[in-house]
Amino acid sequence: MxxxxxxxxxxxxxxxxxxxxxxxxxQALLNGASLPETKLKGPKPDIIPANERRRAPLPVKLAVASxxxxxxxxxxxxxxxxxxxxxxxxxxxxxxxxxxxxxSEHKALSPTKFHNSVHNAPAGYWTISTGTMKAANSVAGYxxxxxxxxxxxxxxxxxxxxxxxxxxxxxxxxQILTPVLPxxxxxxxxxxxxxxxxxxxxxxxxxxxxxxxxxxxxxxxSKSDYLRRLYAANPAxxxxxxxxLLEQPKRDIVVPLSSGTALTFxxxx
Amino acid sequence: xxxxxxxxxxxxxxxxxxxxxxxxLRQHQSGLIKNNLPGSDLDTWIGVVGQVSAVxxxxxxxxxxxxxxxxxxxxxxxxxxxSGLINKYGAARIGLIMGSSTSSIDRTExxxxxxNSENALTDEFRQPFVHNPHAPALFAAHLSGIKGPSLTIxxxxxxxxxxxxxxxxxxxxxxxxxxxVGGVDTLCLSVxxxxxxxxxxxxxxxxxxxxxxxxxxxxxxxxxxVLQRAGENDNAKGIRLTGYGExxxxxxxSHPHPDGLGARxxxxxxxxxxxxxxxxxxxxxxHGTSSRANDLIEGKLISExxxxxxxxxxxxxxxxxxxxxxxxxEAIIAMDTLQTNVIPGSKNLEILDEALNxxxxxxxxxxxxxxxxxxSFGFGGNNCTLLFSRTx
Lengths: 269, 392
Description:
The complex is a heterodimer.
Chain A: E1 6-17, H1 23-30, H2 50-55, H3 58-74, E2 82-86, H4 92-102, H5 111-116, H6 121-130, E3 136-140, H7 145-159, E4 164-170, E5 187-195, E6 204-211, H8 225-233, H9 240-247, E7 253-258, E8 261-268
Parallel strand pairs in A: 2-3, 2-4
Antiparallel strand pairs in A: 1-5, 1-6, 4-5, 6-8, 7-8
Helix pairs in contact in A: 3-6
Chain B: E1 3-12, H1 18-27, E2 33-34, E3 45-47, H2 64-73, H3 78-89, E4 94-99, H4 105-113, H5 135-144, E5 150-153, H6 159-172, E6 178-185, H7 189-197, E7 218-219, E8 221-229, E9 239-248, H8 261-274, E10 283-285, H9 292-305, E11 311-313, H10 316-319, H11 326-340, E12 342-343, E13 365-366, E14 371-378, E15 382-390
Parallel strand pairs in B: 3-7, 4-5, 4-6, 10-11, 10-14
Antiparallel strand pairs in B: 1-8, 1-9, 2-3, 6-8, 9-15, 12-13, 14-15
């Protein structure tokens, strides 16, 4: 059977990073605006009930803040969206906490930190905060996280004819683990997508799986040192290649998907 | 879309492979032992795969989780089935989807006990492909030679049930011609002490759905299955994935919805997708962890949704709750009843919880089943139900 061309419409976008707290602010940076002087500390997503928000770790707050922006931008009810949450690194602060505790004499773990340590904690907090009972996936893909997640979500959007929320997030890595996972940047990005036949406004994204080895991530068009550092170090920030395509749609981009495949994206406004 | 099961294998404390698992099930021989995990003095029972110690030469891939995946991949005919499909379709046309909750955190735990004098990772543990949540699929791609899309799903204890749903969708769009799905999770201090912190571990062998159950036992397992679009492979097992359901509780990170609303949705979705009424299901392999909350809520739901003619059991007393590997382990037990024509009893059940009334027995039941289901529920309120049917 031939590979189907995958299509969806982008109805909403959200973004959060140390120098931008919305998609509009990230767009400005992509288009050459200079970096704000102050670095942001971390999002405080009001949508998480106060009691839960106090206990929510940074990756959860990043993912939920950006997801909420995208649903607001799309003007849809959050609980109508099937979701895929994607992180290349997971919560390394909690990995670090657990491994330090377990290497010590007193191995008792905090029950809250333990349940927050699951990779699907952001999906859990999101569905609890918004009352979403739809399927919520939580995936990992190391260097190909972004392409694999787009593939997975576009396939689910198409085969199940359902609108989707995709959220990519990665937080700075705990110090001991930095020799293997060097990221020190904070980033989250969300898309709300609809089946291409849906009656919604938004750019049409098309993706094709190609058999192709040795594909590498395309260089960012942006000359910003900060954005280039973010793109290189933070697995979730590979989505910036797609963000640039949305800004300048008159070209295709090819991104690695696996050791034997690549994904080609095109976009029509 | 209907999906054929081409091959499957399971590796757990109840049997290093499917053949040994069948024997343990028939003899009601549990693999659970008193906790003897190095560094842990918790009073509980665990399901250890002893044969993992024979796999010890993974180099830069070294972790207990990867060793358990490697051991599982060598069982039965899985490796030769996948190699045959790679030869037929090309490595880039085969997909790979792994489910796990621990990935290789066992190795990260070990690394932290051996930090150098500067409190840094020693060279032996500088393994970027291991210390990340995608480790299971990275390693399985390395093991199998698969070059198509390779994803890891980490939704806690529903992880390796959801791999079947994702695999089915990938096949439906034609981006691959076959998918190797799998699950792997390993016993390690994180999970033992984590579940202990939630006061969920039992000091005794677990007794799912029993009036006197007092918690869960943890286990480790790996499992694999090969999927293709229905009718494209003459060597199929005569078993089809005909339905799946995926849902969220939207209730609590570690406690199930009190009325089981999410679990109800995943079961009804699976039935709807297969176009079957509840009465058509012959057997349900329950999530049945032996926790007070899960079993009460799941048992009540079963009696609300299914007629008394539907046989049910939890098989966790054989190998423990294998977390991210539980989905595929129990999918295999459920689908294998279509080959063995025996429904396994709910081991260690003596007196059914007095608040429950549904068809569950400790003894095996010989039966030629047509349709079987399995439930997997995870932290974050993440639910998945799979439905398998006999072909034809």
